[in-house]
Amino acid sequence: MKILVVNAGSSSLKYQLFDMDSGAAIAKGLCERIGIDGAVTHKRLGKEDYKAKADLKDHKAAIELVLHLLCDPQLGVISDAHEIGAVGHRVAHGGERLRTSSVIGEEELRYLESIVEINPLHGPPAISGIKACQSVMPNVKHVGVFDTSYYSTVEERAYIYPIPYELYERYKIRRYGFHGTSHRFVCAKAMEALGKKDAKVITCHLGNGSSITASIGGKAVDTSMGFTPQEGVPMGTRSGSIDPTVVTYIMKKEGLSPDEMEKLLNSSSGLLGVSGVSSDCRDVLEAQDKGDKRSKLAMDILVHYIKKIIGSYVAEMNGLDALVFTAGIGENDGIVRDLICSDLSYLGIEIDNEINLTCKRGTFTEITKKGSRVRTFAIPTNEEYMIALDTYSLIK
Ligand code: ADP
User: Annotated catalytic, 147?
Assistant: First the structure.
């Protein structure tokens, strides 16, 4: 059976078509600049990429084009859209009610619409993507796979903020956590290697957005992102956690509105804000190498916060079996992995830097130093495959 995985953004739609017999993605691509001057990139295994301008007035036009390309005699990989058995949708936020991957019907859509207020950036495009796909492919099931649902096992003490409880009851202000599909995938991969059912694992998803998750036996116990992806470690352009009073103080001093303040914390902070150079870790490292002091400071802060979270999760779980790195920085950047893992021998974390600095990107690599108590891995994440698997098992 073939499963189509769709990830709809405000002006983009990413897709991957999986053959569930082999587990391979047989085609994938991206529709971008939807509603502007549309373009599409379509890739197939072992063949040249197809790139073209396209008239994409909305998500519906985009998914129609995707189906057309997938079934095209020259560019396609299937002969008929009916070969697609189901569609899996990446949805960032499932709120408190959608706690596991679910078939999306009217009720689920209504619920997703009701929580747009707490998910204003990612909610509307995800809903619009699902509706578009449902209208173009009405005869197959559409499954929502939520970034938040991996955290349904997190206990209240870790997800309720210590603020008046009525605010949680009134507005559902609590910690939700994000990147769950990625953490779930790489944690499962590490667990396979460990061969230990109740393994204590910390997974570091370090990309443009970064989060760290602690899991025991493949079940999340805590995670660094909270009510929004703003909480936790510093990121490319996001501050991560800061003293909340800093927020109100800046607003008063600079005369910023709530939206302007959110923008400052979301888009002008983190690596970019401190270095003043870039949000991209590679640029900041390069500037640091050339002697730029603020770039070094930005990297030092990033590493400092990541170490603090790792330490706190070891305390929370009372132990650690494996530390995992994934996503753009985590998978590719041996220097950052080295900075994070150095001086963690008290926690039993020691890495073999020769393997760490030379390991090939995109491959599952163990970077543990011989004799180290905790095992450390760099594992390529594959959220799309996880979405396809969930979708497949739900409709089977
Ligand atoms: P997103 O959160 O947007 O999915 P990614 O997971 O692609 O982001 O991560 C983007 C980050 O990964 C950037 O900071 C970039 O510097 C870093 N990155 C990507 N490739 C490499 C690489 N080869 N070496 C070092 N860092 C990399």
Answer: yes
